[in-house]
């Protein structure tokens, strides 16, 4: 459905690769950003993270540099996650970074630093809120089993909360310069979750919210989690299949490095740099984006595991960026263990498993003017039988994580 919000997503589909940052009080708990929900932590008890939130090593320019060097071209950062804590100096709440030991607005310097590195900036805002006194005790709320809280529930007024939500979005879109992307999360309408009470567009007044967003920042891109049936699709922790992807319109897969969006100290589930890189190639090869998450620590640093992965991806991106930026799906069918991306008159063959000497490209006979390995621009020769091309590859795989052959397509 493409209602009033048919939007220009040109830069997003050009840039293809972004950094997601989940940073809030949950970084101090260091065991998933849903810790408050999972462990049913009351606001009083959760307060210890607020009182001790002191990111003394927070260095926004170094975060921005790290993102740029990883080849990322845009940022989406959690201004407020489900816990309700605000990174910016909101006039509408005391539950914000300036009132913690951090003592200042943490969002502004972050956005400025990423802009200074030439990246686009986006803001994530959680529609659900476990801190606001008017947010209902639904089945996700940390106080869902607290009988005392339940008895007093009638005092909670979702419309008052919606006013707060609208006011905060207004602050973010009027006081922080140009915001390129607004990433709402999330609505759960209907009874999908068994216990839901129809959270969604009526509760958030989504239409009105969307209209305000567009009025404040006409160029902004919106994602699809307002329950309006439009916006950039955001499959989470899963890559759509080739067929599904074609029907999604503009989409962006968001992925963690280790199964947690917030910093998770004891994570044993780190995905390798190779896997993450293949996920990026897979997304672009299916016409989508990848928004790859980092969960910084409560001291304000990227941990070594995340850092190492970003560096490894960056090393590949420096040599292979042009097979990603401005590229999308190809109509050609790649051989086994390969992916295609295509753009700017070139077809990129990403070889996930190195074959011995020859690789047959179906249906490309007569269509290629020149071919080279992308990382070192060394010629790749081929035989053309009229229908297919048979590439002659070096016997030893090049020393890059995923070798790419760049095929210059004949015009017309
Ligand atoms: C979710 C989660 C969450 C994360 C996000 C990213 O629905 O609630 O913690 O921020 O999606 O897609």
Question: What does the secondary structure layout of this molecule look like, with pairings?
Answer:
Blueprint lengths: L9 H6 L1 E5 L4 H4 L5 H4 L4 H9 L8 H10 L4 E7 L26 H10 L3 E7 L20 H5 L6 H18 L5 E5 L15 H4 L1 H11 L4 E2 L19 H5 L5 E4 L17 H13 L3 E6 L9 H17 L17 E6 L2 E6 L6 E4 L6 E6 L4 E2 L1 E4 L4 E4 L11 E6 L3
Parallel strand pairs: 1-2, 1-7, 2-3, 3-4, 4-5, 6-7
Antiparallel strand pairs: 8-9, 9-15, 10-14, 11-12, 11-15, 13-14
Helix pairs in contact: 5-6, 5-13, 8-10, 12-13
The site of alpha-D-glucopyranose has 8 residues, from loops.
The general outline is: elongated
Q: How much helix, percentage-wise, in residues?
A: 25-40%
State the low-pLDDT regions, or none.
Answer: 191-196
Order of helices and strands: HEHHHHEHEHHEHHEHEHEHEEEEEEEE
Number of helices: 13
Instruction: Enumerate the strands of the largest sheet in spatial order, edge to edge or round the barrel.
Output: 5-4-3-2-1-7-6
Determine the mean pLDDT.
95
The CATH architecture classification of the largest domain is Alpha-Beta Barrel
- Kindly report the CATH topology of the largest domain: TIM Barrel
Structural class estimated from helices and strands: alpha/beta
Q: List cofactors, ions and other ligands.
A: alpha-D-glucopyranose
Give structural notes.
- The protein is an alpha/beta fold.
- The protein has two domains: 10-323, TIM Barrel; 338-409, Golgi alpha-mannosidase II (Immunoglobulin-like), CATH 2.60.40.1180.
- Helices cover 28% and strands 18% of the residues.
- The protein has helices at 10-15, 26-29, 35-38, 43-51, 60-69, 107-116, 147-151, 158-175, 201-204, 206-216, 242-246, 273-285, 304-320, and strands at residues 17-21, 74-80, 120-126, 181-185, 221-222, 252-255, 289-294, 338-343, 346-351, 358-361, 368-373, 378-379, 381-384, 389-392, 404-409.
- Strands 5-4-3-2-1-7-6 form a seven-stranded parallel β-sheet. A five-stranded antiparallel β-sheet has the order 8-9-15-11-12.
- A hairpin with a 4-residue loop joins strand 11 and strand 12 (378-379).
- Helix 5 (60-69) crosses helix 13.
- It is elongated and about 75 Å long.
- Mean pLDDT is 95; it is low at 191-196.
């Amino acid at each position: 459905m493409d209602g009033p919000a048919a939007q220009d997503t040109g830069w997003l589909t050009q840039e293809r690769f972004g950094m997601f940052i989940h940073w809030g009080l949950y970084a101090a708990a260091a065991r998933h950003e849903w810790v408050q929900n999972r462990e049913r932590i009351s606001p009083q008890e959760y307060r210890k993270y607020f009182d001790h939130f002191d990111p003394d090593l927070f260095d926004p320019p170094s975060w921005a540099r790290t993102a740029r060097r990883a080849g990322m071209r845009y940022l989406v950062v959690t201004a407020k996650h489900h816990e309700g804590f605000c990174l910016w100096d909101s006039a509408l709440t005391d539950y914000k970074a300036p009132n913690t030991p951090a003592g200042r607005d943490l969002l502004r310097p972050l956005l400025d630093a990423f802009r200074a590195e030439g990246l686009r900036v986006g803001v994530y805002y959680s529609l659900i809120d476990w801190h606001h006194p008017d947010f209902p005790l639904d089945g996700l709320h940390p106080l869902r089993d607290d009988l005392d809280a339940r008895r007093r529930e009638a005092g909670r007024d979702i419309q008052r909360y919606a006013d707060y939500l609208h006011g905060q979005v207004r602050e973010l879109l009027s006081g922080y310069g140009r915001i390129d992307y607004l990433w709402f999360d999330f609505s759960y309408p209907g009874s999908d979750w068994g216990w839901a009470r129809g959270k969604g567009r009526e509760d958030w007044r989504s239409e009105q919210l969307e209209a305000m967003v567009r009025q404040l920042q006409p160029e902004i891109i919106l994602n699809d989690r307002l329950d309006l049936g439009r916006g950039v699709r955001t499959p989470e922790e899963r890559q759509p299949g080739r067929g599904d992807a074609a029907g999604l319109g503009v989409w962006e897969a968001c992925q963690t490095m280790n199964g947690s969006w917030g910093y998770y100290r004891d994570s044993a589930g780190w995905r390798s740099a190779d896997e993450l890189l293949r996920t990026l190639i897979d997304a672009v090869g299916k016409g989508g984006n990848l928004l790859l998450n980092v969960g910084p620590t409560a001291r304000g640093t990227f941990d070594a595991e995340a850092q190492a992965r970003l560096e490894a991806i960056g090393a590949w991106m420096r040599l292979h960026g042009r097979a990603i930026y401005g590229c999308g799906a190809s109509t050609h069918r790649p051989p086994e263990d390969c992916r295609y991306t295509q753009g700017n008159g070139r077809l990129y063959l990403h070889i996930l498993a190195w074959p011995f000497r020859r690789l047959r490209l179906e249906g490309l006979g007569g269509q290629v003017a020149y071919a080279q390995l992308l990382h070192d621009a060394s010629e790749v020769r081929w035989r053309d039988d009229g229908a297919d091309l048979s590439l002659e590859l070096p016997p030893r795989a090049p020393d890059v994580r995923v070798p790419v052959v760049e095929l210059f397509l004949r015009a017309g």
